[in-house]
Amino acid sequence: MKDFETSLRSILRADQIKTDPKERDYYGRDWTTYFEIKASAIVFPESTEEIQKLVLWARHNKIPLVPSGGRTGLSGGACATQNELVVSLERMNQILNFNKLDQTLLCQAGTITEQLQKKAHAEGLYFPIDFAARGSSHIGGNVATNAGGIKVVKYGMTRNWIVGLTVVTGRGDIIKINQGLIKNATGPNLLHHFIGSEGIYGFITEVEVKLTQIPPRTQTLLLSVSKLSNIMQCYQAFKENTELHAFEFFSDIALKKVLEHKKKSAPFDPPQPFYIVLEVESPHELAETKIMEVFELCLEQGWIQDGFLAQSSEQTKLFWSYREDISESLAPFSPYKNDISVRISKVPDFLNSVNEVLSRHYPQWTIVWFGHIGDGNLHINILRPDGVTKEDFFKQCQNVDRLLFEVVAKFEGAISAEHGVGLTKKPFLQHSKSVAEIEALKALKTWYDPDYILNPGKVFDL
Ligand SMILES: Cc1cc2nc3c(=O)[nH]c(=O)nc-3n(C[C@H](O)[C@H](O)[C@H](O)COP(=O)(O)OP(=O)(O)OC[C@H]3O[C@@H](n4cnc5c(N)ncnc54)[C@H](O)[C@@H]3O)c2cc1C
What we know:
This protein is 35% helix and 21% strand. The chain has helices spanning 2-8, 21-27, 48-61, 113-122, 139-145, 152-155, 191-194, 228-241, 252-262, 285-300, 313-324, 326-330, 347-361, 390-410, 435-448; strands at residues 17-18, 39-43, 65-68, 84-88, 95-99, 104-108, 125-126, 162-169, 174-177, 202-210, 212-213, 218-225, 244-251, 274-281, 306-309, 336-341, 366-371, 377-383. Helix 8 runs antiparallel to helix 10 and helix 13 (347-361) crosses helix 14.
């Protein structure tokens, strides 16, 4: 360890290196709880050039590196499990430039997502990538996972908002890609090699995002639904007749866990099996009338059983908290988590098929569904039954993965909708990607990271 530290000191200051076991455990993990963490140390570079030096040093010494952002990831992508050196981007958190005419923000990759949102707002503009981990996740992590979130229905994934990246590849090259251009047909665009690459091709060190207009006033509705298939009818009615910004669903079990955890009272009496929280644009009276018409249509058709239109910002926050507090409220049950997607039109059949398969194999287990159903993206959580140890539960859940991904493959869906492959989905890549596609990704890995030092063992093995 002494030699290792001395060697590191040739490129970094002492205060940029941490080796304390508690720090190694803290920085060596993300939100997943089932990997044994073994980080050798943590380093805190402060510039692209320092990361370049670090990569060249790691190549020379054959030291594996884990790029680490806000560590809110849910697939183990930022976990250090094989004595890797964790490279935390948390000190690279400066917003470098706002370009008013281009409506772009350039920042270091360790900038917290919420800070970027706030800066955009202060400049009279809007950055639409948004989700519950906004206060901790980094923009670099968002790019590396191609994060989605609650506004994908209207604005799409992170990919849509990236106009420039600076990366340090595993070769140690610094590449500035696309430099803020809207139009660039100069051959294939390497931006897309790095967006969603989960730190296996290079470090993202700077990110330029485009911004958009602050959305007009929106209104939030909370609806209760008795039948799953009705959720999609409701979605279609709002999608066709209003400007939809978000369309999320959660099951009654999910709501109950939030109410217990946060000590809140139930919004509906009687409860229903499912709920929807949705946000629609409502800039003028005409739009408001339309929203009410669609709401009434859904009631008349029996697609929803009851519903509220938020009357204040407090009520808006409350409605969203039922959805956004689910992950935190389930965490004490150390749940099995998965994040999958299918075409929107296939959601009800897909969900029924999964429920059928799982209830056949695990009739006693509590399955909690929620997610961004308006994007075809479902989060499935299974609560650890009383009396079953964490280890046994996760062993059994490996079989759940297999059963679940077989259904995903049948429906031509994605085994990871927005959380990435990391360690958790690695054994199942072939359920969503062809052999030829995986071979191409591996060839890129060999090119960008010839010594296999960047996040080794994540996404796929070579
Ligand atoms: C409560 C909660 C809610 C969430 N909701 C959503 C949601 O709605 N939508 C969604 O998409 N995700 C969601 N997530 C997952 C997570 O927040 C996102 O995946 C996020 O983009 C991860 O960012 P991070 O900075 O925390 O990355 P980390 O967890 O630190 O890392 C994720 C991956 O990116 C790599 N990486 C990180 N930074 C860099 C970099 N600078 N260069 C290269 N590689 C890098 C890591 O090696 C790792 O493979 C949620 C998580 C939590 C805890």
